[in-house]
What does this fold into?
Amino acid sequence: MPDKIAVLIPCYNESLTIAKVVGDFKAALPGADIYVYDNNSTDGTDEIARAAGAIVRYEYRKGKGNVVRSMFRDILADCYLMVDGDDTYPAEHAREMTDLVMGRKADMVIGDRLSTTYFTENKRRFHNGGNVLVRKLINRIFKGGVADIMTGYRAFSPLFVKSYPVVHRGFEIETDMTIFALDKNLLIRSVPVGYRDRPEGSVSKLNTVRDGFRVLKTIFQLFKDYRPLPFFGLIALILFLFGAAAFIPVLAEYFRTGIVPRFPTMIAALFLMLAAIEALCCGLILDTEVKNSRKMYELHFTRVMMDIGSRKNN
It folds into this structure.
């Protein structure tokens, strides 16, 4: 069977740009299936996309994460290319990104905006600094070298799509995808892509403060879930240092005078040290669970690949 490429475009009120996006990617990837998943648009995005030649489907649960969940579950392909419907990502890079997946050189290809025109084209306040902060945090915590964490332009292998558990409902989905790929040791490649700001009249659906807080909250939660030993080890260290800071003066006074005049301080210090030990034990136990989970995922990956192969042959 010929290889099948699916272009996935999640959309909410993108009537000004969706026809151009569909047309550009049809021209860049002839023969690819262009899917537009409409997420309760009220401006006729779905009809415009259908007229442009896209396969239109609907996701009525609000949020980009919900749309991605439906796309990944519904569609079978040999390569998946996801792009936003706001015409900020040029289609000229689509072939290079999909070729990396089709050639089995990557499980996820990231369209890297930050190495090209993003900082000059983006006009939204705080987004530039927010992208840099998130990139530094994730690469430091998860020991990665990912150039652009929150880009909406990505290509995926079937292994990634059919094994990735979508648990987030909003725009933090891109951050979660990146951390999942890093944690599961999947092959990540970056392709520098051009970026252009939205055309006049097209309005971003992102809220800088709300969505930025959700992304940082997601990083914090995933740090706990994927790296429990460093997470709880850090908490244990902080508790121990506070406990030691309170206990050492009491101990020094006891050696000097032979009495302990500040019992409440000593008790509080001991409780802090006991809490530090408990936090460290939690980290050790959860670290073992995470390692066992990674082993189970390896078996799951094998089953997914066998299932993909059988579907391909049939």
About this structure: The longest strand covers residues 5-11. Residues 228-313 form one domain. The chain has a mean pLDDT of 88.
